[in-house]
Amino acid sequence: MAAPKTPMTKAHKQALAAGRAEGKIVRDYLEALKRTKPKRGRKRTPESIKRRLNTIKNEYENVDAVTQLKYAQERLDLAIELAELTAKVDIAPLEKSFVKIAKGYGERNGITYSAWREIGVDAAVLKRAGITR
Q1: Taking the C-alpha atoms of 49, 50, 51 and 53 in order, what is their torsion angle to the nearest 10 degrees?
Q2: Phi first, then psi: what are they for 118, rounded to 5°?
């Protein structure tokens, strides 16, 4: 026989809401880090992407159907990359919020300094958050 369900206390509901809010702050900051992380290899510029898009446009009608298909996908990929390059991500407010809650969030979730570093959080940010080795 199952035990009767007891309603959640107000404190429990508040703790759950705080956990969701902190989880969102951490998620948003880590996603912004991921988007702004430099990629390996030669860096593309908006100008080089526009040149490649122009080349695809000029060659599109004179190639076979399979190459047109590949060009169509490359054009879509380049448009996304161009939009990401031209959109500036201001990570400062996300970082500020992250620094406020990271230590408590990490302690409650068993996240070590090494795990934060491995995912890409800068050592200086962790230091400001009060997270040490």
Answers
A1: 90
A2: -60, -35
